Amino acid sequence: MSNAFGNYNEIFFAQEALLVLHKALGMAGRVFRGYDPSPQAYGDTIRLRRPTAFTAANAPAAATDLNPDSVTVTLDQWKEVKFLLTDKDLSLTRPRIIADHITPAAYALADAIDQAGAALYKKIPYGNQASSTFALSDITAAHQGMFNNKVPMNDSANLHAMVGGSMQANILNKLTATTASATQDPALMRGAITSLYGFNWFANQNTPSHTSGVAADNAGTVNGANAIGTTSIAVSNFQAAGTLKTGDILTITGDPQQYNVAADVTFSSGAATITITPGLKQATVGSEVITATLFGSAKVQNILFHRNAFALAMAPLSELGGQLGARIATVTDPITNLTLRSRMYYDGTNSAVHVALDVLYGWAILDPNLAWRLSDY
């Protein structure tokens, strides 16, 4: 292929940007990733194979049908970074091209992907709040909760903990105070938490904050019978004018599964209809006590999770514009399932080359019980 733009061409942009994108991913680099090889458009849905889980049965047992379960993912995120190249830019060397243009563009895309993933905390129905004086027991409590939820806690390669700045500082301070010869620990001296209690820790500036609803009386009563799978339940006996926010955690007496509020709620005379996620795992007969866990205002939600709790799905975008004068290249990493498109086209009016890097993706919850929220105090 001839290269009229010297050090610039669409394949070079796509390949280099994909490398940077992979390195820059935070939470998104530590989850299950799926890929549809067919070109897709914004808003399309694809199906991903959910990781298979087996159950041991008394022998001789019937063979498990390996028809894998799947989850539908909507490709509802289409992010793009676009910039102009002047005649002077076109004369830059490849290292300068990478440093000045490709790297910051790819970081911006990685940041957008990561923020969308972190927002899934609102669908994690389990968590605990750190104590006012942080203690490592706050982490072991989360560890115990995940163990009780049957998360595979011996799978350390796939267990991760994403923390915000405050939690990172609390853990570093505690480790420094309790570790013999802490100044000799290279990781602590770098301000890094590597492996602790079986988790691979990483600090992320995209770790989300959550503001709970406000209700002095945060317990009410389920009204009437509700079948398994129901996602909308009527309740009463909460605080007269209380509120619940999307992402607040709910427990129902007698049901081992916990739930999240899926849409904001304002009670009228203590009554309301609450939309929940996931759907009910256990039917209700009515009169069960339903309790909301309210962490308060603007609390950072540190997320501990197994890789299979979440899925990031990507698909290539169309290269149809290549038939209309644009120069387009799409590259996909077969190992990570990351895919990225680059486009170049000339703006004759302004004598400039437009460059666009874009990605199409969607996030999904595979199993919310494989994750845990450790809220800042």
Q: Report the structural category.
A: alpha+beta
Strand content: 25-35%
Mean model confidence by pLDDT: 89
Low-confidence sequence ranges: none
Count of DSSP H/I helices: 5
Give the oligomeric state.
single chain
Q: What is the approximate shape?
A: globular
Q: Encode the helix/strand succession as letters.
A: HEEEEHEHEHHEEEEEEEEEEEEEEEEE
Radius of gyration: 24 Å
The amount of helix comes to 10-25%
Number of DSSP strand runs: 23
Main sheet specs = 7 strands, mixed
**Distance from first to last alpha carbon:** 58 Å
Structure overview:
The chain is α+β, with helices and mostly antiparallel strands and 377 residues long. It has 5 helices and 23 strands. The protein has helices spanning 10-24, 94-118, 137-148, 165-178, 186-189; strands at 32-35, 45-49, 70-74, 77-85, 127-129, 159-163, 195-196, 199-203, 209-210, 219-222, 232-236, 243-244, 249-252, 258-261, 265-266, 272-277, 289-293, 299-306, 310-314, 327-332, 339-347, 352-365, 371-375. The strands form 5 sheets. Strands 5, 6, 7, 8, 9, 18 and 23 form a 7-stranded mixed sheet that branches. α1 (10-24) packs across α2. The radius of gyration is 24 Å and the shape is globular. The mean pLDDT is 89.
Task: Describe the structure concisely.
With 377 residues, the protein is an alpha+beta fold. The chain has 5 helices and 23 strands.
